[in-house]
Amino acid sequence: MIKRGITVFALALLLAVPSAFAADGAAIVKKCGSCHKLTGPAAKTIKEVRERKAPDLFYAGSKFNKDWLVGYIQNPTVIRPAGTVYANHIKTTGDTDTVVTPPKCESKLSAGDAAAAADYLMTLKDPKMKTGVAKLGEFSNAKAKMLIIKTEACNGCHQIQGNGGVSCPTWEGIGKRLNPDWVYSFVQNPEYWDPKIWMGKRDLDEASVQLIVNFIAAQK
Amino acid sequence: MKKIVISKFSAVLVAAAIILMGGMTVSASAETANDNYNLYCVQCHGSAGTGKGINAPFLAVAPRNHTDPKAMGELSDANVALAIKEGGSAVGKSTQMPSWKHSLTDAEIKDIVALLRQKCKCTGAAK
Question: In this complex, is the C-beta atom of A86 within 8 Å of any C-beta atom belonging to chain B?
């Protein structure tokens, strides 16, 4: 009797274990392709950019921190206050533009599916991106703000510590979201990732890039 | 009759050539001034060009009203092109006006200057 019980239990385990692992990340993510681009290249013309419904995910493994990703795809929040492509979500009254509430990410994965999907998304890497280049450490917050707010005016388009424009992603929690090595690459050459991005490339020296990377990483 | 056939054929050839050339323009990815303005500039200068874009309320310095003939008329075409290419700081203005030299070609900037002249219905000051 006991023996039979154990056998049944073992059988149940055998059946249960594979199915718990069966969540197929690639298959889950495939469905996200109705909005997100899962293969490159990025849009090359303004026309293609204006047709973009959601941010590209084909280099998700280079761009995101995995812990953040697992959480986000279970319960997405607003990152871009004026939507993926701000120009598609504005309304003009008189001569003044305002934001028309943009559509949100519709990912609502269970914890198990999110883990599997994130495992798969993290394999979507750009092999050309240099890694280990962001040098995180102590930095002067005052110097960083001088560069970011006064010299480069990043807050013209990004919300930084509660203040700033809305046409680009918020910096609220951005340190949790982005891989510092990707930030290192993106701030130096945004067009490499997105040829028609409405963030103009800046000419920054290495020290300035590292200062920005550190400041961004600290926005948790 | 034969003549008509030939002219029809050459019309097809010309049409094919135009389509091919059109394709070449696209692959060189030159964009129209309007498309560029609507993607890069409207975030601050606004759809109407009057400086009331969605970011404007958050800027320390108001974006230039591109429809103002007085303010725009005081700037030469070269000055406007320089501001777009190198940013506000290159023309003694605010760094809140970014540089677009890596996003736009010189030809595209020239087209945008012409578009701004349409918006202000003004000509540029002499240098």
Answer: yes
Tens digit of each residue's pLDDT (9 = 90 or more) over A179-205: 999 999 999 999 999 999 999 999 999
From A79, A96, A127, give the residue that closes a domain. Answer: A127
In this structure, is residue A98 part of a structural domain? yes
ipTM for this model: 0.88
Report the residue of B29, B34, B36, B39 to disrupt the A interface, i.e. the one with the largest count of A CBs within 10 Å: B39
Q: Where are the domains positioned within chain B?
A: 29-120
Give pLDDT tens digits for A123-179: 999 999 999 999 999 999 999 999 999 999 999 999 999 999 999 999 999 999 999
Chain A residues inside the 8 Å CB shell of B87: 200
Count of structural domains within chain A: 2
In degrees and rounded to multiples of 5, residue A164 shows phi and psi of 145, 180
Residue A186's domain comprises 130-220
- Of A84, A109, A127, which residue constitutes the final position of a domain? A127
Angle (nearest 5°) at CA B67 between B66 and B73: 80
* CATH fold label, B29-120: Cytochrome Bc1 Complex; Chain D, domain 2 (1.10.760)
Distance from CA of A132 to the nearest CA of B (A): 26
Cβ pair B39:A156 closer than 8 A: no
Q: What is the pTM of this model?
A: 0.88
**CA B25, CA A56: separation in Å to the nearest integer?**
26
A143: domain CATH number is 1.10.760.10
Distance between CA atoms of A86 and A54, rounded to whole angstroms?
A: 11
Start-to-end CA span in chain A (Å) = 56
Q: pLDDT digits over A90-133, tens only?
A: 999 999 999 999 999 999 999 999 999 999 999 999 999 999 99
d(CA B99, CA A200) in angstroms, rounded, equals 6
